[in-house]
């Protein structure tokens, strides 16, 4: 009986310790003056520690006595992954706020166990409502103006729809009161849990993912920076008639309030609405992947949160459309060397140059794990010589399965830890895009061909001398010919 009680008692003690740490982290004067907020933070942190504690116990006891890598071990591990993912989903839904954001972040990374990514994917479109009177106070305080002096109306949504006195429709994004303080507390709790998990399970290392998550959340809290990101993206695509970025109203924008042009449209993967508007989902998919291919390979300035709610399709009549890109809070400016190396990686992936892939793996710092780049990005093995864009053979699938089964969690953690921060952004963005493309029913070769084309554009830097320029252009033309020959074969085999 004592043994049965020990687990819950230890978990309760851990929760109490975390709660005490949260309370201690708040300034004493603030704690006394904001008791409800402190109690709310304590409850959220206690719930998180309690949930993760049960997850730890489940892994420890469910896998005990099973031979690592055996069929029984893999089956049981999948069961525990699924149970744990469901517990964490309930935690995110209960705590909301940054826990939902953390769940969204994890679900968009294809390299986490599929039980987690699929279970947590339902969080992508969740948002936390807030009392409109609180929002009104923030708008008036931060802009220094009475709300009714600048707007005729304002809705009650997550991002508020309003109309200025000149009848211009706008979308007003407001930072909830106390959000920054709540983020600090939540990140502190997550850091405590991450370090505890790394101590209990040395093969599981999450610090780098947490650091990247904290960076992205800090960016989302600065609406001035979001407005600048928006205008920079609009400038990058000013000659693209398909891409639309809402204009910013700077006189009605501050660090906590962002006022933009209101743009209407359908969620990018809303097939019913697209078909009713006589818009081809395949054309939408092609335009979308061209947009992000150019972002990644050419501009090196990447929107870090392209889930369906942040990309709208606005009908323009006769089957034409524009893509409206929203929510510019999370961006990553790629290091120039990384961008060029990533272009070279895709060139090597398309040309099946395994030696170059392994060489670039050293540049990226992943060493022996570079052999998995083709699997991650193109769905093929590094030894494969079959036509790119086609399915792996049965023999290739068998060899790959055996290879992956030999990997432990320490290998996955080592791979994720070794990746440069720019690569984590790429993986997350590419994972979200591939999900949208799948929903739109786009053929696999659409993404591969577009990325190959954009990678070539990204490599087209002007050499200094005329002889270098001539040689470079010859290489590019030769490479284009090889790539187009490969993709003609793909299209012949898929038609």
Automatic annotation (TrEMBL):
Similarity remark: Belongs to the protein kinase superfamily. ADCK protein kinase family.
Gene3D superfamilies: Transferase(Phosphotransferase) domain 1
Signal sequence extent: 1-25
Residue span(s) of domain ABC1 atypical kinase-like: 123-359
Organism: Oryza sativa subsp. japonica (Rice)
Name of this protein: ABC1 atypical kinase-like domain-containing protein
UniProt keyword list: Signal
Organism classification: Eukaryota, Viridiplantae, Streptophyta, Embryophyta, Tracheophyta
């Amino acid at each position: 009986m004592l043994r049965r009680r020990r687990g819950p008692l230890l978990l309760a003690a851990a929760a109490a310790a975390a709660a005490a740490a949260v309370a201690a982290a708040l300034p004493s004067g603030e704690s006394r003056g904001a008791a409800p907020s402190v109690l709310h933070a304590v409850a959220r942190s206690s719930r998180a520690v309690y949930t993760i504690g049960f997850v730890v116990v489940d892994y420890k006891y469910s896998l005990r006595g099973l031979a690592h890598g055996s069929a029984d071990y893999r089956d049981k591990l999948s069961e525990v992954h699924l149970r744990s993912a469901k517990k964490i989903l309930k935690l995110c839904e209960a705590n909301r706020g940054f826990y939902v954001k953390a769940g969204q972040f994890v679900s968009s990374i294809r390299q986490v166990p599929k039980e987690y990514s699929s279970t947590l994917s339902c969080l992508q479109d969740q948002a936390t409502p807030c009392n409109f009177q609180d929002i009104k106070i923030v708008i008036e305080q931060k802009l220094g103006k009475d709300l009714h002096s600048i707007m005729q109306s304002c809705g009650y949504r997550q991002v508020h729809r309003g109309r200025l006195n000149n009848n211009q429709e706008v979308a007003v994004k407001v930072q909830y009161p106390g959000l920054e303080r709540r983020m600090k507390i939540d990140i502190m709790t997550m850091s405590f849990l991450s370090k505890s998990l790394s101590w209990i399970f040395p093969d599981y290392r999450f610090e780098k993912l947490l650091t990247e998550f904290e960076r992205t959340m800090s960016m989302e809290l600065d609406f001035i920076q979001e407005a600048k990101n928006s205008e920079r993206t609009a400038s990058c695509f000013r000659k693209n008639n398909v891409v639309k970025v809402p204009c910013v109203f700077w006189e009605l924008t501050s660090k906590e309030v962002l006022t933009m042009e209101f743009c209407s449209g359908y969620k990018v993967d809303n097939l019913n609405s697209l078909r009713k508007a006589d818009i081809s989902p395949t054309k939408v998919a092609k335009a979308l992947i061209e947009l992000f291919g150019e972002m990644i390979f050419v501009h090196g300035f990447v929107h870090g949160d392209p889930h369906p709610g942040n990309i709208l399709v606005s009908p323009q009549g006769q089957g034409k459309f524009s893509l409206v890109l929203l929510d510019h809070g999370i961006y990553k400016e790629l290091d120039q060397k990384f961008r060029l190396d990533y272009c070279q990686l895709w060139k090597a992936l398309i040309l099946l140059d395994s030696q170059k892939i392994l060489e670039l793996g050293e540049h990226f710092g992943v060493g022996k794990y570079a052999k998995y780049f083709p699997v991650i990005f193109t769905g093929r093995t590094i030894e494969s010589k079959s036509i790119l864009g086609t399915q792996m053979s049965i023999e290739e699938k068998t060899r790959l399965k055996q290879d992956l089964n030999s990997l432990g969690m320490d290998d996955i953690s080592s791979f994720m830890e070794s990746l440069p921060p720019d690569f984590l952004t790429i993986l997350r963005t590419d994972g979200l895009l591939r999900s949208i493309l799948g929903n739109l029913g786009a053929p696999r070769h659409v993404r591969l061909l577009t990325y190959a084309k954009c990678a070539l554009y990204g490599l087209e830097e002007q050499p200094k001398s005329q002889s270098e320029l001539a040689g470079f252009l010859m290489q590019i033309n030769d490479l284009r010919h090889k790539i187009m020959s490969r993709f003609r074969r793909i299209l012949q085999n898929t038609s």
